[in-house]
Amino acid sequence: ILNVEQSPQSLHVQEGDSTNFTCSFPSSNFYALHWYRWETAKSPEALFVMTLNGDEKKKGRISATLNTKEGYSYLYIKGSQPEDSATYLCALGGGADGLTFGKGTHLIIQP
Amino acid sequence: NAGVMQNPRHLVRRRGQEARLRCSPMKGHSHVYWYRQLPEEGLKFMVYLQKENIIDESGMPKERFSAEFPKEGPSILRIQQVVRGDSAAYFCASSPRYGGEGTEAFFGQGTRLTVV
């Protein structure tokens, strides 16, 4: 059973501030790491899929980095806006085991 | 191209009844995942299916739960003799193939099962 840990569990950030949070995973047998954004009352939406050590992906004000050797990925949000409030999920895998999700980081942007 | 469609959105069952949850994957997607979100918990993997095959059901309870993804039609998650502890949101996701780039899973809106 893969163990995917996300920290912190929840985070309050002032509007306009930048923030980041972590996804940790076993570094052996790495296949791919996914980030999803999950807004309340909606279904999770894919943000990034990363496969290579050192990968960095960016979408608007959100970016992610990947370190497969040490088993972690960071998600960064620059200049947080109220619409960024959501739960951010990371998931490890692909392959025959499907995706294993962490419990998420619940981000609240305070005006 | 419609997204992943789940129905019903809300399902109420009495203890002991059967619950059938349906998931129609996105067009062209042949991989389906089912996840369960229990109250106060994150998403937990249940089962991974390809057309007519169960690839991994390690997250699914051994009893009362079954899943299928037939050649034609939606994927079905079936819960027999439901109990209160089965009350949860059940999400289905689909992807075009398993793996890395370009294989993001797209999620349905979920089915919220309430057992009374």
Q: What does the model show?
A:
The complex is a heterodimer of chains A (111) and B (116). Chain A is an all-beta fold. Chain A is built from no helices and eleven strands. Chain A has strands spanning 5-7, 10-14, 19-24, 33-38, 45-50, 56-59, 62-67, 72-77, 86-93, 99-101, 105-110. In chain A, the strands form two sheets. In chain A, strands 2, 4, 5, 9, 10 and 11 form a six-stranded mixed beta sheet that branches. A five-stranded antiparallel beta sheet of chain A has the order 1-3-8-7-6, with no helix packed on it. In chain A, strand 4 and strand 5 form a beta hairpin. Chain B is mainly β. Chain B contains no helices and eleven strands. Chain B has strands spanning 5-7, 10-13, 19-24, 31-37, 43-50, 53-56, 65-68, 75-79, 88-95, 106-107, 111-115. Chain B is globular, with a radius of gyration of 13 Å. The termini of chain B are far apart.
Alpha plus pi helix count of chain B:
0
Summarize the helix and strand pattern of chain A as letters. Answer: EEEEEEEEEEE
Shape of chain A: globular
Helix fraction of chain B? under 10%
Give the termini separation of chain A. 40 Å
Note the topology.
The complex is a heterodimer of chains A (111) and B (116).
Chain A: E1 5-7, E2 10-14, E3 19-24, E4 33-38, E5 45-50, E6 56-59, E7 62-67, E8 72-77, E9 86-93, E10 99-101, E11 105-110
Chain B: E1 5-7, E2 10-13, E3 19-24, E4 31-37, E5 43-50, E6 53-56, E7 65-68, E8 75-79, E9 88-95, E10 106-107, E11 111-115
Parallel strand pairs in B: 2-11
Antiparallel strand pairs in B: 1-3, 3-8, 4-5, 4-9, 5-6, 7-8, 9-10, 9-11
